[in-house]
Structures are given as structure tokens and as C-alpha cells.
């Protein structure tokens, strides 16, 4: 019998179970692109998509804030991957020398929740664990996301 995890999970405190160790979390926008490509491939093979697939696709498309039907999927993938890499490598040093970074959960949550007019206060309300970062750092993160969104939708 498997042992129950003693880890108390709390996203606001960046406490996740061991299943979140060393994983790559995708944003809704990334999943939407993957599902679109897969759906086209299924149509080309004359295969029907199952109900779970269609519902998942509908969900990620509904909540995907980074989309542009006029752009090629490869271009969108590159923009999204570059944004994810930039957020994952984001570092800020505090006055006492502690280096702060974003957890992969925060990276995907930011990519999913931020829109072009999101304020620092809204970002913290949506992702409470960001409150450990200085407001200037959060503003820098939001600017990075907003500039990517503008490139994607224009």
C-alpha cells in the first residue's frame, strides 16, 4: 500500500506535493496550440475526437488570453516558449541577498491569468504566493507578459 504524503499542499505558500517536483507545467495557451495541431492531424487521418478531448479543447480556448488565429502555430509556440523560459529564469535579489525566483506553478498561473491591464495588486490577489516579491519585480514580470501578449495578438 502506498504511503500517504505528509506534505501539506498550499499554492499560496508555494508548497506542493512531490508530484510537482521536476515537472514542466503548460499554460492554457500552450495546451490550446498542442490540441489544435493534434485535432488537425486527427481530421487528416479521418479520426473523430472524443468528448473529453473536445471539452478540454473548448476549455483552454475559452480561457486562453494569448491567441491570434492569423499567426502560424509555430510562431505562437515560439513566443509562448520564450515567455515561459523568461519567466522560469526570472530572478530578483532581495536587500538581504536572498534570490527570489518563480515556481513553475506561478509561471503557468501568470501566463493563464494575466491580461494586458492586470495590475500588481490583481496579480497578487490571483496568485497570493507572489506577495513575497517586491512590487517592482512583479511589475517587471507583468510588463514581460504584456509585451509578449501584444506581440501575439498584433
From TrEMBL:
Main location: nucleus
Localisation: Nucleus
Stated name of the protein: RNA polymerase Rpb4/RPC9 core domain-containing protein
Presence of the UniProt keyword Coiled coil in the record: yes
One term under GO cellular component: RNA polymerase complex
Residue ranges the record marks as coiled coil: 66-100
Similarity section: Belongs to the eukaryotic RPB4 RNA polymerase subunit family.
Keywords for the protein's UniProt record, in alphabetical order: Coiled coil, Nucleus
Any matching Pfam family: RNA_pol_Rpb4
Keyword Kinase: no
The species this protein was found in: Cylindrotheca closterium
Domain RNA polymerase Rpb4/RPC9 core: 18-149
GO molecular function, one term: nucleotide binding
Signal sequence bounds: none
Highest taxon above the source species: Eukaryota
Biological processes annotated in GO: DNA-templated transcription initiation
